[in-house]
Amino acid sequence: MTKFLTTILMLAIAGGLLFAHGQQSTADFLSDSDKAQIIESVLDLELQTQASVPDFANIRKVSDDNIEFIEPSRLSEHGFTLVVASQLRESKKDHIVEYLQFRRIYSRNGLALVALSRVTEGRPCFGAAFVTERTYTYESWRTSTGWVAQLIGNPANLLVNFTPKRFAAKRWTPGTKPNNALQLTAR
User: Fold this and answer.
1) Per-residue confidence (pLDDT) for residue 24, from 0 to 100
2) Each residue's pLDDT tens digit in the chain (187 positions)?
3) How many angstroms from the chain centroid is the CA of residue 180?
4) Is beta strand 81-83 parallel, antiparallel or unpaired with respect to 61-63?
5) Where are the alpha helices (DSSP H) in the chain?
6) Residue 68: which residues within 8 A CB-CB, separation 6 or more?
7) Buried b (16+ CB within 10 A) or exposed e, 21-42
8) Over the range 104-120, which residues count as b (16 or more CB within 10 Å of their CB) and which as e?
9) Helix (H) or strand (E) holding 148
């Protein structure tokens, strides 16, 4: 009987600890208004980052993926155009498109971490479809005048979904007319 009561008491204490731990979340809730201000602060800094010497980027389209709540006029005030994601997917079938995409906006202990990707994708005239993505990490915090952003993570250049044609070498066989000693044929 004592073992039974001890077991129940231990389960009750463990359950109470798990319940208390579940309530102590350090993640902050961000309203759509806060998220919009964070996006604006990141885009202001993105303008400066794009003007930096190593990148020479001039990307002004922003995908509405993950930021459907923001008004297009708020982005246009900063020189950017909000583009519907389905329109970007349609455009990449026949053209090369460049755009920015907000991957994540996460707030913890008063700081917001934002992952912003510069995406170039599409199908060139005489090539295979490709996607190039460079993700930057920004940190944003609230001040008395609004949200301020800082670049904290440089991009890791990723080539995703790039499938060049494979070539196989064919040896010249005696008795045939040689064009070259080795011929390349696409598979």
Assistant:
1) 42
2) 556 555 565 555 655 544 444 444 456 788 999 999 999 999 999 888 887 756 567 899 999 999 999 999 999 999 999 999 999 999 998 899 999 999 999 998 889 999 999 999 998 888 888 999 989 899 999 999 999 999 998 765 444 444 444 444 455 455 555 554 444 444 4
3) 46
4) parallel
5) 2-23, 32-50, 72-76, 85-91
6) none
7) eeeeeeeeeeeeebbbbbbbbb
8) ebebeeeebbbbbbbbb
9) strand 146-153
- Which residues, in sequence order, are CB contacts of 170 under 8 Å at separation 6+? 182, 183, 184, 185
**Distance of alpha carbon 44 from alpha carbon 6, whole angstroms:** 60
Six-digit token string for 75? 């982005």
State the residue for tokens 């077991």. 7
For residue 157, give Cα distances in angstroms to 55, 66, 77, 133.
Answer: 12, 22, 29, 7
Query: What totals of helices (H) and strands (E) does the chain contain, helices first?
Result: 4, 9
Tokens of 37: 């201000």
Q: What is the pLDDT of residue 117?
A: 93
What are the structure tokens assigned to 86, written together?
């389905």
Q: 149-181 burial, b for 16+ CB within 10 Å, e for fewer?
A: bebeeeeeeeeeeeeeeeeeeeeeeeeeeeeee
Q: Mapping DSSP to helix (H, G, I), strand (E, B) and coil, where does residue 12 land?
A: helix
